[in-house]
Amino acid sequence: GAVEVSVRSPVACWFSAMLHCFGGSVLSSLMLAEPPVAFLANGTNILLASSVWYLVFYCPQDRFCQCFAFLPLRLLVAGMKEVTRTWKITAGIAHANGHFKDAWLVMVAVGWARGAGGGLISNFEQLVRGVWKPETNELLKMSYPVKVTLIGAVLFTLQHSQYLPIARYNLMFLYTVFLVVSKVTMMLTRSATSPFAPIEAALGSMFFGLPKTPSKVKGEGATSSNDSSVSDRSSSEQHCDSTKKREAKKTE
Amino acid sequence: GAVEVSVRSPVACWFSAMLHCFGGSVLSSLMLAEPPVAFLANGTNILLASSVWYLVFYCPQDRFCQCFAFLPLRLLVAGMKEVTRTWKITAGIAHANGHFKDAWLVMVAVGWARGAGGGLISNFEQLVRGVWKPETNELLKMSYPVKVTLIGAVLFTLQHSQYLPIARYNLMFLYTVFLVVSKVTMMLTRSATSPFAPIEAALGSMFFGLPKTPSKVKGEGATSSNDSSVSDRSSSEQHCDSTKKREAKKTE
Amino acid sequence: GAVEVSVRSPVACWFSAMLHCFGGSVLSSLMLAEPPVAFLANGTNILLASSVWYLVFYCPQDRFCQCFAFLPLRLLVAGMKEVTRTWKITAGIAHANGHFKDAWLVMVAVGWARGAGGGLISNFEQLVRGVWKPETNELLKMSYPVKVTLIGAVLFTLQHSQYLPIARYNLMFLYTVFLVVSKVTMMLTRSATSPFAPIEAALGSMFFGLPKTPSKVKGEGATSSNDSSVSDRSSSEQHCDSTKKREAKKTE
Fold it and tell me: Region entry Disordered: which residue ranges (chains A, B, C) (predicted)?
């Protein structure tokens, strides 16, 4: 899909890529009624993301993608992306706290939106490319990055309200290490079973009376739709596309 | 639909319920460029709405729903919901007047959005649950609550601009009584024919040259899709869902 | 489509027409986090646009549309519409410059949104009428007015940053003359081949490595979906509708 769009309409392709990279800041700006175009004002980031986008899609003979198919490089980039996630969550929470003093739910929501924005607005990002899949979205079937960002947002909000007896930099360090380790493990083992699956099943059956087996089946189902960098993609185009997004995200 | 979603993804179900309950404040905040997450800052309301949501969907053996299937209790809750509608409309108009001095259309629009918000954004609320029905929306086929809220918004705006020679509290009292009486009548007679149907048909044929018969046919068609608490639902799940929404709305 | 909607639901039809006329200001307000209902505060414009809307859709025996089927009158109205486009672009750029000092991309984006807003949000305008076409949008397949507005926004931004050695009023004059001449030519020759087609093909093959022939085929394909006032419409209703939109747009 993505390659065809890039040939038919470079503008839509570029806009979709930008929405993927800067979705977090667009969504959190909308939620706090600030100009969602603010991300365009930072010329350096846009330039960096745009050049990565250009190299991925229009580099002759796909040289750029072939570089990033090299595993250690992919691990490095994926790790760096997870590090920025921590920064984005804490920035979102501090931002929300500036608007609404001590409103926990707002802090969690904005931190989550900032950290996982690209995933949460994926329905509208796909609409730009002419794809519309109303029957699913990241709230109905949360992918692993979205889940882990939600947990991070809750943790950092608790820390911010001083309910968690731990210093901020310690929590940031531990959370980032956890993110990077779980991401690298998932990439190396090519498995997509979330580390939270057993906890989720337990919570689900305790609070929501969910039967245990369907919950596990759902877990398997989610496997295939999980983060694209994990599963063993045969189609090199899709791989390229996900590489690009990861790389560009690094630039934020 | 709703029960299946609640089993598959409690997060999407909760978000959809919140969007239904607080849709009015989200929509009017967006229209006036204020943070749409402001409703999350009021912890008490969220807690109340969330506990009702939890009891409706996950109470063992559906005890909670069975309570609200008791008719007098349903009448009471429906009546209270209509009372809050009046408050919401006047709050919306006062709010809009603070931003745009004496702009009548803005006042009508914001008052309407605040009072009937859950209905107007129903397309997007359904999208959260993975349902997408582009061929209809509340503007194309207005339900009775949306219509009556529009009339209320026009009346209160006229009163605010002192075109209507009546005191504010008198108008509020009369409008609320009208809302409650018409709602209770509709629930008791299980009919869904809007009291405005003849007036609408007359206005339609006068200003828009509509043929009289199609307009009536449309009226019949709207019957089935009208406010869910009116029609005699056989499916108890749907009934439960609508009960929940009504109840939760009371909490606003 | 449009006539049927106007019979079934005048409210949705009116709202859709307003969204078409004032889409530019709604979109640019959203992008700069200002109240998107601000356009409703200008009573005169709304009144003018609404009366044109009323005359087009509900005038007995379609007298109003028949007037505008007269070619010289259509040319005049189309020309006036193009003149307002220049004003809207420069207003959008000045507005964006007030919020973000010297952020070029923001200026281009807001100027473009202001000038071509009705086209860019056409997906959502159609949704109000109950039509949903996710497989295409103005970014995937840009129509001529949207393209020419983008070029205008880039030119005026360059001029604003003093990269273009030309006075503002000269640029405005030249750009407006170009707009009007190209529009009138397209209306008279009933052709829809964009004057930019060869330049686009050259740029596409240079930067994006597009094969030359598919690009031309795309050009032909775009012909039929191009600006509705150009192609020789057989259906007089559609013609009426486009006339209305053009006329109403003049009122801004």
Answer: 215-252
